[in-house]
Sequence to fold (437 residues):
Amino acid sequence: MKLITNGIKGTEDILPRDSYKWQFVEDIMRGQAQSYGFKEIRTPVFEHTELFNRSVGDTTDVVQKEMYTFTTKGGESVTLRPEGTAGAARAMLEHGIYNEGYPIKAYYLTSCYRYEKPQKGRQREFHQFGMEVYGAPSPYADAEVICAANSIFDRLGVQNLSLELNSIGCSECRPKYHAALKEYFSAHESELCDTCRSRLERNPMRILDCKSPVCSEIAKKAPTVLEYICDECKEHFEGVKSCLDTVDIKYTVNPSIVRGLDYYTRTVFEFVSNDIGAQGTVCGGGRYDGLIEELGGQHTPSLGFGMGIERLLLLLESQGIEIEQPPVCDLYVVGIGEKAKLKAFGIVEGIRNASLIAEGDIVGRGIKAQMKYADKIGAKFSMVIGDDELTANKATVKNMVTGAKREVPLDDGFYDAFFALYVNGANDTFMEKLGLN
Ligand code: ATP
Ligand code: MG
Fold:
């Protein structure tokens, strides 16, 4: 086979045989979001480039190196979203939903695009689940989003994740910290990578986040932010920690966590695993009290997180957490001959209308091949309809697990008869699972 082209490097196809894993994880995310009072927001895949320059920050790796930016036929610069927060904040402001009263709680499940070197846990198209809260200055809000993220890991049964917590201060205390960092890194200026040298003046904190081995080695001995944060920031941080202590969520204060996006203030956090290689951060987030103002809105303390779904699935796999395959077929109806096939088609449709899963032949297989196929897809019951069955107006339903057979009418009584069997059949399987059969 010679295909005209392949999928783009750094992207992945989620195939029908695997998509149930995604759906399972997404269902848990949606369910937990609902428990915490969040409603879904969906925003466009592309935005005006300046949105990300301003919010993510033009000294970040994301903006400097990773964005998919292009000029449209109309001459506008647009960018595929590299993360979910900026678009959500933009939409919230544009539609004035803050008039509905604070807090606003939104979640998203979305694809993101970053031009990065593809490797395990790092793709060019990836997916995030994220939560956003607007208009919530209290440390209870920080703790609430951390609890929400944590609850998803709990529901999935993920083990050995460490929650790393830090405070990176606010616009009051940040300048003092920047000055200390500038002084420290200036002494190492010649050793820094080109990007970091240019960051020295404008945003030395970004150097702490640089992935180059030399810069990160130098960064290890840099002054830490917690020595510089103001009393209010300290109090806020203590508040967050008290909430987490109350609900017994364990964390480690890690002063080297600064996060890769510029909009963060005060609380930042990451959930990190050692089980999935170098890209171990499964979830990252924190507070961004200045973001809404940066985008032209009023001062609106906000916060949230982004969780990488690919990394989460890698983690489930590495920890041997199995996701049950959804049922494929409750009843397979084999039809032999044109008239019987039509009858089978009608019954299959009737079962589906009753919200069970039914299948019939759409390939043109013979009777044996149809039975084999019913077996292969794990049909719970099967039924054959041929001329004899049509004449007698009766057919035999077979329980594919126990082999038990039962006669059913092919008129309107069919559905009641089948549902009775279906319920018993489910019990049979249940008994079998318990070893009582
Ligand atoms: P990293 O340090 O791994 O580059 P980041 O700080 O750039 O991560 P965020 O912008 O905070 O990541 O994104 C939130 C989450 O999205 C990450 O914790 C990770 O799980 C996931 N993520 C980020 N970039 C990628 C990517 N290129 N491929 C897959 N998942 C990603
Ligand atoms: Mg990154």
